[in-house]
Each structure stands twice: as structure tokens, then as C-alpha cells.
Amino acid sequence: MSRGLNKVMIIGNLGRDPEMRFTPSGRPVTTFSVATSRSWNTSDGERRTETEWFNVVAWASLAEICNQYLKKGQQVYIEGRMQTRRWEDDDGNKRSSTELVAREMIMLGDRRDREEDQADEASGSDYGDEEEEFPF
């Protein structure tokens, strides 16, 4: 018997805040994008970087968790499977979308950074609005 494997693991940063919707039956689904980057040196010694974007879909309780805790720019580990959906749009054109259907999500990065982000969000402060003061 032949077996297949469809398993994807990525570490990257959210490109936008998650968006949660509900199916007609009331099941939550959350979507967001994650950017992964890789760097290498060319044969001429030039440094190159390439970014790959993944559309991520989370369902049920994982959808609720992603919607509640993830924010744009945050680093995450996502594990799941790739899926391609195909449909016809209103004009009869064939369309497709490839997405990573998440099975597991782990928030990465420094815990202090996440706590500071939550504290700033609660206080209404934004990093870009104020100049930093240095004690020297």
C-alpha cells in the first residue's frame, strides 16, 4: 500500500492581523498570512534574501486562539498541511488558492515583547507615535 505525506512546518512573521469569520453552521475559521525569509550569498559574494508568503487557515478552537492572541509582525511556528481550493468566480473564470491549513500554532519570540505589546495595546500607546528617551 502506498502512503503519502502532506506536512508543512514554517516559522515566520504575520503579515497582517488575523481575520475570523464563521461558516453558515457556526464553525469559526481564521485566516492570516505569514512571511518566511531565507538568505544566501551568491557566487559573487552578494547577499540575497527571498521572502515566501503563506496564506494560513485555522479552524475551530485553533481559529479562536489565533484570532485572540496573534498580531501583525509577531513570529509564529505553524504546522499543518497544504491544500489547494478551486472554484469558478462570478464571471466563470477558474480560480485557485493554495493555503496552509494549520493543525498547530506556537507563538515565538521573546515573551517580554508579547507582554509589552499587550500592555501598549491596553494603554493605547503605539511605538511609532512617541520618541524614545535614553537615560544617557
Largest sheet: 5 strands, mixed, barrel
Q: Domain count, please report it.
A: 1
CATH topology: OB fold (Dihydrolipoamide Acetyltransferase, E2P)
Number of strands: 6
Helix and strand element order? EEEEHEEH
- pLDDT under 50 segments (min length 5)? 121-136
Estimated helix fraction: 10-25%
Q: In brief, what are we looking at here?
A:
Helix content is 17%, strand content 49%. By secondary structure, it is α+β, with helices and mostly antiparallel strands. The chain is globular and about 55 Å long.
Helix-strand blueprint:
Elements: E1 8-14, E2 19-22, E3 28-41, E4 47-59, H1 60-69, E5 75-88, E6 94-107, H2 111-123
Parallel strand pairs: 4-6
Antiparallel strand pairs: 1-3, 1-5, 2-3, 3-4, 5-6
Descriptive labels:
disordered C terminus, OB fold (Dihydrolipoamide Acetyltransferase, E2P), 2 helices, single chain, about 140 residues, about 15% helix, five-stranded mixed barrel
Tell me what the structure shows.
17% of the residues lie in helices and 49% in strands. It has two helices and six strands. The chain has helices spanning 60-69, 111-123; strands spanning 8-14, 19-22, 28-41, 47-59, 75-88, 94-107. Residues 121-136 have low confidence and may be disordered. It has one domain: Nucleic acid-binding proteins (OB fold (Dihydrolipoamide Acetyltransferase, E2P), Beta Barrel). The longest helix has 13 residues, at 111-123. The radius of gyration is 19 Å and the shape is globular. Strands 1-3-4-6-5 form a five-stranded mixed beta barrel. With 136 residues, the protein is of the alpha+beta class. A hairpin with a 5-residue loop joins strand 5 and strand 6 (94-107).
